[in-house]
Structures are given as C-alpha cells and as structure tokens.
C-alpha cells in the first residue's frame, strides 16, 4: 500500500517577518499549522550576529520535536546560512555541497529518509538570482553527483526549495523535464508564493519523481504565514509507492563531495 506523507517547503527569510521582527518560534508555529512529516527550509541562519547568534535549524526542530540536518551554503567564520531538512522520521545525510555560483554562494542538501517500506531521497536547495546561474545549478542537480547518480527506476525522489524561478524560466523547464511539479498534478490552478502579503510569483517549488502520487497541494496562507516570512510555504500530501522488491538499494555517501 502507498505510504501517505505530508511534505512542506518554506523559505523562512532568516526568521525575519514582513513586520521586520525576528521570531523563529513564529516560523515553527506556521509549520505546526500544517502538521508536516518532512520540512525543507531555506534561508536558515546559524550563529549569525544579525539573528542573535542562535541556531535556527535546531531551535525550529526543537519546537517541532524533530531532528534537523543543516548545510551552510554561506560560511563566514562562525556565521552560517543555508538549507535544512527537519523530520521525526529516521534520517541520514547523503550529501551536502555547494552549487556553481556567480553571486551569493548556493548549495544543496540531500538526505535519505527511511519510511520502512521505502527510502525517500530528499534534496533541498535555494537557487541563485541570475538566469544563467540557475541553469548551471539545475544542470548540476540533475547530474551524476546528485539526481543523476541515484540511477534506479524505483527510487523515490523529492526536490524542493526556493528556485527563484517562474514556470517560464529555463531552469524550471530543465527540472520539469525530469521531475513532476506537484502543483501541476491537480486540477487547481498553481498558486504563487512570493511575496507573502500579496503573492505574485511562483518561486517555490516541489518536484517529485516516479512512484510518488499527489493527493493534495496548497500554498499555506494563514494570517500568521503572511507575516512570519516574505515567502509562503507549500504543503503537499503525497502517496509514496513502495519499490519493487530488490530494486530499492541505498545511495552511497559521497564523502569527497561533502562540505
């Protein structure tokens, strides 16, 4: 039987809201409204002076009774900034590395989550602001060091994050040629996620591979979500099909590419 799963992706803007208040607990409250099993976060601060030096990934995970894996795309002395995956399910780090960047450094984080009857490969990223840069980054994620290295028809894959890319962009089209955009799997019109107070652009995305069905998908736009960050989170209800027996091997940790 397929495994039901609630997945959320959220650019938390270093936990600064549209009211300019710093409040990681408010971000955790928005996430709690959605009751997700797995959370992909972008723009997370760890040890940064601007956000009080706290570990936002750990703090939000603690509020939610979850564990976190964090990868800093930007690392300046003791200050870090990047992406995180949070869940209470068994999780192991597969890979965390930088992506080719010409502006602000960008990276990606890959974890494997054990669903007992399937192993879910989750990759979270935050792509750059320039179109050519995003194409290079998307090409890297589709290459042998990332999605292209999984190499199994029965792999269960989710790619999520703030791609800084609308549906007409080259980077989006590149990813959409290999994976399914969850917002396009339902009859409802795709909804924008940015800016949170009056969303105009669909910059945040969840893509899934084969063997993953989409039961429901919504952009979470509660009153709290509209003020907690400048992006709105996407919540997806997924159905994960178990792989055929003998086809669910695990990806190896690429220690040489870890950062």
UniProtKB/TrEMBL annotation:
One of its GO terms (cellular component) is membrane. It comes from the Bacteria. The keyword Hydrolase applies. The keyword Oxidoreductase applies. Residues 8-231 form the Endonuclease/exonuclease/phosphatase domain. Its EC number is 1.13.11.-. GO terms for biological process: GPI anchor biosynthetic process. This is Metal-dependent hydrolase. It comes from Sinorhizobium fredii (strain HH103). The lineage of its organism: Bacteria, Pseudomonadati, Pseudomonadota, Alphaproteobacteria, Hyphomicrobiales.
């Amino acid at each position: 039987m397929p495994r039901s799963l609630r997945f959320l992706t959220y650019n938390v803007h270093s936990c600064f809201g549209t009211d300019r208040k710093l409040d990681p607990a408010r971000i955790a409250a928005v996430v709690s409204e959605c009751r997700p099993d797995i959370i992909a976060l972008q723009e997370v601060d760890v040890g940064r002076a601007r956000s009080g030096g706290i570990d936002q990934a750990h703090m939000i995970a603690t509020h939610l009774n979850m564990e976190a894996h964090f990868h800093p795309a930007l690392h300046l002395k003791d200050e870090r900034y990047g992406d995180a995956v949070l869940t209470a399910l068994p999780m192991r780090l597969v890979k965390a590395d930088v992506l080719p960047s010409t502006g602000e450094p960008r990276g990606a984080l890959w974890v494997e989550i054990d669903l007992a009857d399937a192993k879910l490969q989750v990759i979270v990223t935050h792509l750059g602001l320039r179109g050519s840069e995003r194409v290079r980054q998307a090409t890297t994620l589709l290459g042998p060091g990332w999605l292209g290295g999984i190499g199994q028809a029965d792999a269960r894959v989710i790619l999520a994050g703030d791609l800084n890319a609308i549906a007409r962009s080259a980077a989006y089209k590149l990813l959409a040629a290999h994976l399914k955009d969850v917002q396009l799997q339902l009859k409802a019109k795709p909804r924008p996620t940015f800016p949170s107070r009056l969303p105009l652009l669909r910059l945040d995305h969840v893509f899934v591979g084969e063997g993953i069905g989409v039961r429901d998908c919504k952009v979470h736009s509660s009153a709290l979500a509209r003020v907690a960050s400048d992006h709105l989170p996407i919540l997806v209800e997924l159905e994960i099909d178990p792989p055929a027996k003998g086809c669910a091997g695990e990806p190896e940790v690429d220690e040489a590419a870890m950062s």
